[in-house]
Specification:
- The complex is a heterodimer.
- Chain A is built from eleven helices and eleven strands.
- By secondary structure, chain A is an alpha/beta fold.
- Chain A has two domains: 7-51 and 133-280, Rossmann fold (3-Layer(aba) Sandwich); 60-121, Alpha-Beta Plaits (2-Layer Sandwich).
- Chain A has a nine-stranded mixed β-sheet, with helices on both faces. A two-stranded antiparallel sheet of chain A has the order 4-5.
- By secondary structure, chain B is an alpha/beta fold.
- In chain B, 35% of the residues lie in helices and 27% in strands.
- Chain B has a nine-stranded mixed β-sheet with strand order 3-6-7-2-8-1-9-10-11, sandwiched between helices. Chain B has a two-stranded antiparallel sheet with strand order 4-5.
- In chain B, helix 5 (149-166) packs parallel to helix 6 (182-188).
- Chain B is elongated.
- Classes of the chains: A alpha/beta, B alpha/beta.
- At the A-B interface, helix 4, helix 6, helix 7 and helix 9 of A face helix 4, helix 6, helix 7 and helix 9 of B.
């Protein structure tokens, strides 16, 4: 877990582009809480935080390395591997790194100890500081396929992060393994959506996901007065609390395009966010 | 047949709305929704499902509580933080596997001293072959938290290609997922070309650069369309320059227009619903794409997915 057990608020959504990062940054600013950018495929919080980078660590995962002199080509590893990451060619095992899930099974099952492990870099975790914010950012290397190990490394990073009672996670979109890896183990999930058919459909998927994970959650509606009332009606029907609504304003979109934060574009949101955070996690505000 | 994949890097840039408009404009086309994790194209195309199949991929480990002695070997060996303590009905301390975290590697099954772990095929989702008012469509729904989204994407593309071949279609239009990871790579490898739809924001710019690098990494010709260009004309210019530097051909730009939302509410493609400047810009973009792709070779082999 992040640090010595702060209250972890995960900001997630089914649909991309609904304002997860905008809200995550604003919530972190209001609370004075560290922000973890777990959207490692496309980390964007730094564009708004504009931190001075203090530290950057490569994140690696372990893949098998065959010692060919010891390999007898018995096939125990290929039989165990569920991801087709190993094949036997000319009585020797051969590795396809990009298919490997780093489970370590082949090394353990090899009867001749012919399999060692080597590190491949999948991305990095960086620590950045701005005047008021601490940002931990995971960033996946181009061409890498597996986000979850990097998301775990980002969540677990705590070197030089000042102690806090609250931490904010900016999560990847969707409902599959990257999103689950990011929200799993958090204390509360804020699902950000917009009042459109796409927004509603993807919100329903996200709600189903967090319900199965048995995580408490609420909804934030961005561009709340665009579209129609179907998202509001759905939340009411399902007994889901809508805790934040942000209006649709062209000047907000323009400010966002320049990398200005929500609180700069709509300063009146500060009090609303503060009130909600105070309810959610009394004592979490620095 | 040309296969065009529409992606964006960043979500919410209008990728699916544009794909739906191309579905409306393209003649003799087949459609595939490869955003299997949060699919939305069906909300505009309103497909009539003709065939529905279960997608089974990989396995799922499950501990039999009555046979678990609580030795903890599985927990020690699991690389995915998927094993957690549990209490057996009779009060013994045992372990259980969180299906959301299990990646189906079989390590716990292999090394459990009691052989107390079952390993059964995992149902990861559902895929569909459908008919729409614009043509045939293949789409899918990944189960909540399921693994193998990349494999489901490959399956959807493969099935859509088969339909396209049957119909001797001119086009296969693919709505891709956001990001740059496994499902995106499974969506674009082996395609004729990729259209990147982005917006003139710092986030849009940042994500565009990453997705453009990914296309270059896999050697796929890429085109750029800037949506909502007028919310920041200066940033739009920067994007176009950056595209040229990354060997991405700049094709069109579309203004910020609430018609995207209005058309969506009416279950229509933008070009179907409206005939305004925005709709004209999209039609123009589609004409340019047709011209550009005319010089690309037709698809022969099937794509290889992982």
């Amino acid at each position: 877990m992040v640090q010595t057990d702060p209250f972890v608020l995960a900001v997630a959504s089914g649909k991309g582009g609904t304002g997860k990062t905008t809200l995550s940054v604003a919530l972190a600013q209001v609370a004075g809480a560290p922000l973890y950018d777990c959207d490692v495929e496309e980390p964007n919080a730094h564009l708004f935080v504009r931190p001075q980078w203090q530290d950057k660590q490569d994140v690696t995962r372990r893949v098998p390395l065959i010692e060919t002199e010891l390999c007898t080509g018995c096939g125990a590893c290929t039989e165990l591997c569920q991801f087709n990451a190993l094949i036997i060619v000319g009585h020797k095992a051969m590795v396809f790194e990009e298919l490997c899930h780093s489970c370590g099974g082949c090394r353990r099952v090899c009867p001749t100890q012919a399999i060692h492990e080597t590190d491949v870099t999948i991305g990095s975790v960086s620590l950045g500081l701005s005047a008021k914010l601490t940002l931990v950012q995971g960033c996946m290397a181009i061409g890498q396929v597996m986000a979850p190990p990097l998301i775990r490394a980002t969540r677990n990073y705590h070197h030089n992060v000042p102690p806090a009672k609250l931490a904010i996670l900016d999560c990847p979109p969707g409902t599959s393994c990257p999103m689950i890896t990011a929200v799993r183990g958090s204390d509360f999930v804020l699902l950000v959506t917009e009042p459109t058919p796409f927004g509603l459909n993807d919100l329903q998927l996200a709600v189903e996901t967090v319900r199965q994970l048995q995580l408490p959650f609420a909804v934030a509606i961005n561009r709340a007065d665009s579209g129609d009332r179907r998202v509001h009606d759905y939340c009411q029907r399902e007994g889901i609390e809508v805790v934040i609504e942000i209006p649709e304003l062209r000047h907000v979109a323009e400010a966002y395009s320049r990398g200005e934060t929500l609180l700069e574009a709509l300063p009146q949101q500060r009090q609303l966010l503060q009130n909600w955070l105070h309810q959610l996690c009394p004592g979490g505000l620095a | 047949m040309k296969e065009l994949v529409i992606i964006s890097g960043k979500g919410g840039t209008g990728k699916t709305s544009l794909t739906a408009a191309f579905c409306h404009l393209a003649k003799q086309a087949v459609f595939a929704d490869c955003d299997v994790d949060a699919a939305d194209l069906h909300l505009i195309l309103n497909p009539d499902i003709r065939r529905s199949e279960t997608f089974v991929s990989g396995h799922e480990a499950r501990i039999r509580p009555q046979d678990c002695t609580g030795c903890g070997t599985c927990r020690e060996l699991c690389a995915f933080e998927a094993v957690a303590p549990a209490t057996a009905p009779e009060g013994r301390e045992i372990f259980h596997i969180d299906p959301f975290a299990c990646e189906g590697c079989k390590v716990c099954v292999q090394f459990c001293p009691q052989q107390a772990i079952d390993f059964s095929p995992a149902e990861c989702g559902q895929w569909y072959r459908s008919e729409t008012r614009f043509g045939s469509m293949v789409h899918a729904r990944l189960h909540i938290g399921a693994e193998n989204s990349g494999k489901l994407v490959s399956l959807v593309r493969e099935q859509a290609r088969l339909v396209a071949q049957e119909q001797a279609a001119n086009w296969l239009l693919v709505d891709g997922p956001p990001g740059i990871g496994c499902p995106v790579i499974a969506s674009i490898t082996g395609a004729t070309a990729v259209l990147i739809v982005t917006e003139p924001t710092l986030s849009g710019q940042h994500d565009f650069e990453r997705v453009a690098q990914l296309c270059r990494h896999f050697g796929i010709p890429a085109f750029l369309c800037v949506n909502k260009w007028d919310i920041n004309p200066e940033q739009s210019e920067t994007l176009s320059r950056c595209a040229t530097e990354n060997d991405v051909t700049v094709l069109g730009r579309i203004p910020y227009d609430p018609v995207f939302t209005t058309a969506q509410l009416q279950v229509q493609a933008v070009t179907e619903y409206a005939a305004n400047e925005t709709a004209k810009a999209i039609r123009q973009l589609w004409r340019q794409l047709q011209q550009q792709l005319a010089s690309q070779p037709d698809q022969g082999k099937r794509p290889k997915g992982d």
